[in-house]
Design goal:
Layout lengths: L2 H14 L4 H17 L11 H30 L8
Helix pairs in contact: 1-2
Length: 86
């Protein structure tokens, strides 16, 4: 099944469950990214925990980079007094 057809099926299920439009768009974005991360070579039904862990590890690494960049912006460039950020 092509990726867009698969995503449309996901959208239909989300609408049946009455998810909000923003949730729908966010979920579809994450699902699309999951499929693309694995090169689109394998359908999600044929993937499992190892593939999910790989994507989550990548997202965590990106989140850490984003966090570091924002800390740099505020601590080193703008230099305001910020409360502790965990």
């Amino acid at each position: 099944m092509p990726v867009e057809t698969f995503l449309e099926k996901c959208r239909q299920v989300m609408r049946l469950k009455h998810l909000s439009y923003r949730t729908e768009e966010t979920y579809l974005s994450v699902i699309r990214r999951f499929v693309e991360f694995h090169g689109g070579r394998t359908h999600p039904k044929d993937m499992g925990a190892p593939e999910i862990r790989a994507v989550l590890s990548q997202l965590a690494a990106e989140q850490n980079v984003a966090f570091s960049a924002l800390l740099f912006l505020y601590r080193d460039v703008l230099q305001p007094e910020l409360p502790a950020i965990d």
